[in-house]
Amino acid sequence: MAVSGLGAVIYNRFFIDTASYEGRAGHYGDAFDAVADHWLTGGYDTVGVSTHNLVFDTLLRNGIFAAVPALVVVCTVAATLWWLAARLDRLPSSMVPVAAALCLPLVRMLTIGGGQISPVGWLALGFVLGVLAARRAAPSRAAVLHREEQYAGV
Protein backbone atom coordinates (compact mmCIF):
# COMPACT_ATOMS: atom_id res chain seq x y z
CA MET A 1 0.00 0.00 0.00
CA ALA A 2 2.83 2.39 0.81
CA VAL A 3 4.56 1.64 -2.51
CA SER A 4 1.43 2.36 -4.55
CA GLY A 5 0.90 5.74 -2.91
CA LEU A 6 -2.52 4.75 -1.61
CA GLY A 7 -1.34 5.18 1.97
CA ALA A 8 -0.34 8.78 1.25
CA VAL A 9 -3.70 9.50 -0.36
CA ILE A 10 -5.57 8.10 2.64
CA TYR A 11 -3.33 10.01 5.07
CA ASN A 12 -3.83 13.29 3.18
CA ARG A 13 -7.57 12.78 2.95
CA PHE A 14 -8.09 12.12 6.65
CA PHE A 15 -5.37 14.21 8.30
CA ILE A 16 -4.18 16.99 5.97
CA ASP A 17 -7.09 18.00 3.68
CA THR A 18 -9.96 18.19 6.17
CA ALA A 19 -11.89 21.00 4.45
CA SER A 20 -14.75 18.71 3.44
CA TYR A 21 -15.15 17.47 7.01
CA GLU A 22 -15.08 20.97 8.42
CA GLY A 23 -17.60 22.09 5.80
CA ARG A 24 -19.87 19.15 6.59
CA ALA A 25 -19.70 19.97 10.30
CA GLY A 26 -20.81 23.52 9.48
CA HIS A 27 -23.69 22.17 7.39
CA TYR A 28 -24.78 19.98 10.31
CA GLY A 29 -24.82 23.05 12.56
CA ASP A 30 -26.96 24.96 10.04
CA ALA A 31 -29.26 21.95 9.67
CA PHE A 32 -29.80 21.56 13.41
CA ASP A 33 -30.59 25.28 13.66
CA ALA A 34 -33.13 25.01 10.81
CA VAL A 35 -34.96 21.96 12.18
CA ALA A 36 -37.02 24.06 14.61
CA ASP A 37 -38.52 26.06 11.73
CA HIS A 38 -38.85 23.29 9.12
CA TRP A 39 -39.65 20.08 11.02
CA LEU A 40 -43.31 19.82 10.05
CA THR A 41 -43.51 20.66 6.36
CA GLY A 42 -39.89 21.10 5.32
CA GLY A 43 -39.10 23.73 2.73
CA TYR A 44 -35.43 24.23 3.64
CA ASP A 45 -33.14 24.38 0.60
CA THR A 46 -30.40 21.80 1.10
CA VAL A 47 -28.81 22.15 -2.34
CA GLY A 48 -25.80 24.20 -1.24
CA VAL A 49 -25.77 23.12 2.39
CA SER A 50 -26.54 19.42 2.35
CA THR A 51 -25.87 17.49 5.56
CA HIS A 52 -24.94 14.46 3.44
CA ASN A 53 -27.47 12.43 5.39
CA LEU A 54 -30.64 10.94 3.94
CA VAL A 55 -32.75 11.41 7.06
CA PHE A 56 -31.68 14.99 7.93
CA ASP A 57 -31.91 16.25 4.35
CA THR A 58 -35.33 14.66 3.95
CA LEU A 59 -36.50 16.21 7.22
CA LEU A 60 -35.35 19.66 6.16
CA ARG A 61 -36.67 19.47 2.59
CA ASN A 62 -39.93 17.60 3.15
CA GLY A 63 -40.72 17.57 6.87
CA ILE A 64 -41.35 14.90 9.46
CA PHE A 65 -43.87 12.95 7.36
CA ALA A 66 -41.15 12.11 4.84
CA ALA A 67 -38.29 11.85 7.32
CA VAL A 68 -39.92 9.06 9.35
CA PRO A 69 -40.15 6.70 6.34
CA ALA A 70 -36.55 7.62 5.43
CA LEU A 71 -35.48 6.73 8.97
CA VAL A 72 -37.39 3.44 8.73
CA VAL A 73 -35.56 2.60 5.49
CA VAL A 74 -32.15 3.37 7.01
CA CYS A 75 -32.94 1.37 10.16
CA THR A 76 -34.29 -1.57 8.14
CA VAL A 77 -31.18 -1.71 5.97
CA ALA A 78 -28.94 -1.45 9.06
CA ALA A 79 -30.91 -4.18 10.88
CA THR A 80 -30.76 -6.44 7.83
CA LEU A 81 -27.01 -5.96 7.58
CA TRP A 82 -26.62 -6.70 11.29
CA TRP A 83 -28.83 -9.80 10.96
CA LEU A 84 -26.80 -11.09 8.00
CA ALA A 85 -23.45 -10.35 9.66
CA ALA A 86 -24.50 -12.06 12.89
CA ARG A 87 -25.50 -15.21 10.99
CA LEU A 88 -22.75 -15.43 8.37
CA ASP A 89 -21.20 -18.40 10.18
CA ARG A 90 -24.47 -20.35 9.74
CA LEU A 91 -25.31 -19.16 6.22
CA PRO A 92 -23.78 -20.42 2.99
CA SER A 93 -20.64 -18.63 1.87
CA SER A 94 -22.61 -17.19 -1.06
CA MET A 95 -24.28 -14.83 1.41
CA VAL A 96 -21.03 -12.97 2.15
CA PRO A 97 -21.26 -10.80 -1.01
CA VAL A 98 -24.95 -10.23 -0.29
CA ALA A 99 -24.08 -8.84 3.16
CA ALA A 100 -21.25 -6.81 1.66
CA ALA A 101 -23.62 -5.41 -0.98
CA LEU A 102 -25.73 -3.88 1.79
CA CYS A 103 -22.77 -1.81 2.97
CA LEU A 104 -22.84 0.39 -0.15
CA PRO A 105 -26.37 1.76 0.19
CA LEU A 106 -26.16 2.00 3.98
CA VAL A 107 -22.96 4.04 3.95
CA ARG A 108 -24.25 6.21 1.13
CA MET A 109 -27.53 6.85 2.97
CA LEU A 110 -25.50 8.36 5.78
CA THR A 111 -22.95 10.22 3.66
CA ILE A 112 -24.45 11.09 0.27
CA GLY A 113 -24.77 14.69 -0.80
CA GLY A 114 -28.29 15.89 -1.45
CA GLY A 115 -29.75 13.19 0.75
CA GLN A 116 -30.89 10.98 -2.11
CA ILE A 117 -30.17 7.31 -2.69
CA SER A 118 -28.15 6.90 -5.87
CA PRO A 119 -29.18 4.47 -8.64
CA VAL A 120 -26.32 2.15 -7.66
CA GLY A 121 -27.66 2.10 -4.10
CA TRP A 122 -31.12 1.18 -5.36
CA LEU A 123 -29.61 -1.59 -7.49
CA ALA A 124 -27.72 -2.96 -4.49
CA LEU A 125 -30.88 -2.88 -2.37
CA GLY A 126 -32.81 -4.65 -5.14
CA PHE A 127 -30.11 -7.31 -5.48
CA VAL A 128 -30.11 -8.03 -1.74
CA LEU A 129 -33.90 -8.03 -1.59
CA GLY A 130 -34.06 -10.48 -4.50
CA VAL A 131 -31.55 -12.86 -2.95
CA LEU A 132 -33.21 -12.76 0.47
CA ALA A 133 -36.67 -13.26 -1.06
CA ALA A 134 -35.43 -16.21 -3.11
CA ARG A 135 -33.83 -17.79 -0.04
CA ARG A 136 -37.03 -17.31 1.93
CA ALA A 137 -39.20 -18.83 -0.80
CA ALA A 138 -36.89 -21.78 -1.37
CA PRO A 139 -37.88 -25.01 0.37
CA SER A 140 -35.86 -25.93 3.42
CA ARG A 141 -33.09 -28.51 3.16
CA ALA A 142 -35.05 -30.90 5.38
CA ALA A 143 -38.09 -30.66 3.07
CA VAL A 144 -35.93 -31.37 0.02
CA LEU A 145 -34.31 -34.39 1.70
CA HIS A 146 -37.72 -35.70 2.81
CA ARG A 147 -39.08 -35.36 -0.72
CA GLU A 148 -36.04 -37.19 -2.13
CA GLU A 149 -36.47 -40.01 0.40
CA GLN A 150 -40.18 -40.19 -0.36
CA TYR A 151 -39.64 -40.76 -4.07
CA ALA A 152 -36.39 -42.75 -3.80
CA GLY A 153 -38.04 -46.11 -4.45
CA VAL A 154 -40.21 -44.97 -7.37
Overview of the molecule:
- The chain is mostly helical.
- It is built from 7 helices and no strands.
- The mean pLDDT is 81.
What's the topology here?
Blueprint: H1 6-16, H2 19-38, H3 54-62, H4 64-87, H5 96-111, H6 119-137, H7 141-150
Transmembrane segments: 64-84, 120-138
Keywords: Membrane, Transmembrane, Transmembrane helix
Give a nutshell description of this structure.
The chain has one domain. Helix content is 71%, strand content 0%.
Label this structure with key terms.
single chain; membrane; transmembrane; 7 helices; 154 residues; mainly alpha; 71% helix; transmembrane helix
The helix/strand series, from N terminus to C terminus, equals: HHHHHHH
Beta-strand proportion? under 5%
**Low-confidence residue ranges:** none
Number of domains: 1
Separation of the first and last Cα atoms: 61 Å
Largest sheet: none
| Percent helix range | over 70%
- Strand element count: 0
Q: Write down the overall geometry.
A: flat
**Category by helix and strand content:** mainly alpha
Radius of gyration: 22 Å
Residue-averaged pLDDT, rounded?
Answer: 81
The helix count comes to 7
